[in-house]
Design a protein that fits this description.
Elements lengths: L2 H4 L4 H5 L31 E3 L8 H14 L2 E5 L5 H16 L2 H4 L11 E5 L13 E6 L3 H4 L10 H26 L6 H4 L5 E9 L11 E4 L5 E6 L5 E5 L2 E4 L7 E5 L1 H6 L9 E3 L7 E9 L5 E2 L19 E2 H10 L19
Parallel strand pairs: 1-2
Antiparallel strand pairs: 2-10, 3-4, 4-5, 5-12, 6-11, 7-10, 7-12, 8-9, 8-11, 13-14
Bound molecules: N-oxalylglycine (OGA) and nickel (II) ion (NI).
Protein name: Fe2OG dioxygenase domain-containing protein
GO molecular function: dioxygenase activity; metal ion binding
InterPro entries: DIOX_N, IPNS-like_FE2OG_OXY, IPNS-like_sf, Oxoglu/Fe-dep_dioxygenase_dom, Plant_2OG-oxidoreductases
Length: 353
């Protein structure tokens, strides 16, 4: 390992000067991507056309959502209402941000997960043992006016484009939440009403090309801590979803988003809907950009299984206790992407076991 690489904060600046993966990014043999075993052509996640949500086939779409959320925890959406131009501008400005000189990018660097706008690397450099081949800019973005002042001023159009994108994605999320509530047999505004003042974060993920992609991850297997995630990705594959004991590669489709259920939705649905493991792998010759929007409760919101879905006498007792999202979120950042849901389960009643 050469000295110039070790002194750098960001993996993008290490990747550009090394022909091997530095030892702090190398996973133990039992925890490597095993890329030859990944399913690349068979099963994939469902594709749902949201156009039909506003027509006579609404019930059919709701049914497709219920199936996707319970069987996969993941789906793709088309005709989602976010303008192509908005998507393209967001992707372009993200690429421009990461192409800026190191000196410009590191102005935003912080390892503190509590900061509402920050550039960082890996996942949580303060707690993890092995690093990940990813840099990211993480932004809180709802309400936009509370945070836009902190966002990068370079590229010059960054704030405007990101605000437009975040606003457009929020409208899409609210539509999805109504449909998902309905698919659980709940009132349309039920899920949205449990989120306090609501929160929305974005990550702009930058995965540099990697000389030995079989030794490391862009992001290792994890579930998302938030309620629901809407992921925009460029044309370079990398996302993989765990299904029936296998990793499935998700092929990027232009102008679609990938949506996945997060831990909070699993809790609210009392385990009807699944927050599924997924990971990002890297490749030797292409950089990859992905932009997840993490929609979440506000920190003060109290989350727990919806009462309507609990029946202690029958077969559906509450699986989780109630907690504030602040409590959950803190655990998530502390635990270096290890699962958190189990920490919030109601202990099994010894009389029943
Ligand atoms: C994430 C994530 C996947 C990707 O940021 O939580 O799962 O494809 N990203 O970048
Ligand atoms: Ni994720």
């Amino acid at each position: 390992m050469d000295a110039s690489a070790t002194s750098k904060l960001l993996v993008s600046d290490i990747a550009s000067v090394t022909d091997h993966v530095p030892s702090n990014y190398v996973r133990p043999i039992s925890d490597r991507p095993n890329l030859s075993e990944v399913e690349t052509s068979g099963d994939s996640i469902p594709l749902i056309d949201l156009q039909e949500l506003n027509g006579p086939n609404r019930a059919d779409v709701i049914h497709q959502l219920a199936h996707a959320c319970s069987a996969y925890g993941f789906f793709q959406i088309k005709n989602h209402g976010v303008p192509e131009k908005t998507i393209e501008r967001m992707m372009t400005v993200t690429r421009e941000f990461f192409r800026q000189p190191e000196s410009e990018r590191v102005k935003h660097y912080s390892a503190d997960p509590k900061k509402t706008t920050r550039l960082s690397t890996s996942f949580n450099v303060g707690t993890e043992k092995v690093s990940n081949w990813r840099d990211f800019l993480r932004l809180h973005c709802f309400p936009v006016e509370d945070f836009i002042g902190e966002w990068p001023s370079n590229p010059a159009s960054f704030k405007e484009i990101t605000a437009e994108y975040a606003t457009s994605i929020r409208a899409l999320v609210l539509t999805l939440l109504e449909a998902i509530s309905e698919s659980l047999g709940l009132a349309k505004d039920r899920v949205s009403n449990t989120l306090g003042k609501h929160g929305q974060h974005m990550a702009l993920n930058y995965y540099p090309p990697c000389p030995q992609p079989d030794l490391t991850y862009g992001l290792p297997s994890h579930t998302d801590a938030n309620l629901i995630t809407v992921l925009l990705q460029d044309e370079v594959p990398g996302l993989q979803v765990f299904k029936d004991g296998k990793w499935i590669a998700v092929h990027p489709v232009p102008n679609t988003f990938i949506v996945n259920i997060g831990d909070q939705m699993q809790v609210i649905s009392n385990d009807k809907y699944k927050s599924v493991h997924h990971r990002a792998i890297v490749n030797t010759d292409k950089e990859r950009i992905s932009i997840p929007t993490f929609y979440c409760p506000s920190l003060d919101a109290v989350v727990g299984p919806a009462q309507e879905l609990i029946n202690e006498k029958e077969d559906s007792p509450a699986v989780y206790r109630s907690f504030t999202y602040a409590e959950y979120y803190e655990k998530f950042w502390d635990r270096a992407l290890a699962d958190c849901l189990d920490l919030f389960k109601v202990p099994n009643d010894p009389k029943i076991v």
